[in-house]
Amino acid sequence: MLNELDVQVDAEENSSGQESVWRAVYNLMRYPSSSCHLGPHCWQDPHGKKHYALRSHHLKRLIAFVEKGNTLQSHEDVPEIFREELFMEEQQRLENQQSKKRNMSSIPGSCPINIHFNGVQPSSQLETPESSTFPTMPSSPKAQVNDAFNIPGPRDVAVREYSAWHEANVADDHLKAQFRQACDIALANGFDLQLIYEDQDPSFFINQGIMVGIARQFVRDVVKWVRSVRNVLPIEGM
After folding, report:
1. N or C: which end of the chain has fewer CB atoms below 10 A?
2. pTM of the model
């Protein structure tokens, strides 16, 4: 990546006599202190001041953003959709860490040891899971769906109309293409809108090359589209 950068920088600066876009972006996103453990490049959230690691593919996208004529003079100029993807990647990283911890706790021999003092045994109330009181967790979107969406017409047509609605809400051609690709992936795997909403699984699309933010929107906004665009209410319980 560094060799590629050097070649690109030299070519741009020799031809224009100005600082390369590549170098400007890399310099802007390079953290000046060694105290940041995320790496040489990161984005600092102007609001929360939290740092988010930037890899080569992140930097390439920011360079493309500038090359299209957009302004990138500070971390506040980073576009909103790019920020959302960084937030989602960080959330997935934390969830993966928690999942690994849970898996480790399920390994035999890793369970906590109960120590009884002075021969006193735990009460039956503590030993019986049914008698324990836990806070009620909110039901998942999947649990809120009863039978089906009340959407007239072929299901595959509804998926394409839903994708077209997403495309109409963005101006960037690359983002439009990402929504079309998410639509094609859904149909190729036999998904209708209800299944997409029930599963609530943006990682399915992310693992097949869809941008994190696009995948989240494609999964999240099904009911919003049904209610506002098609003017058809899902069945009771949605």
Report:
1. N
2. 0.41
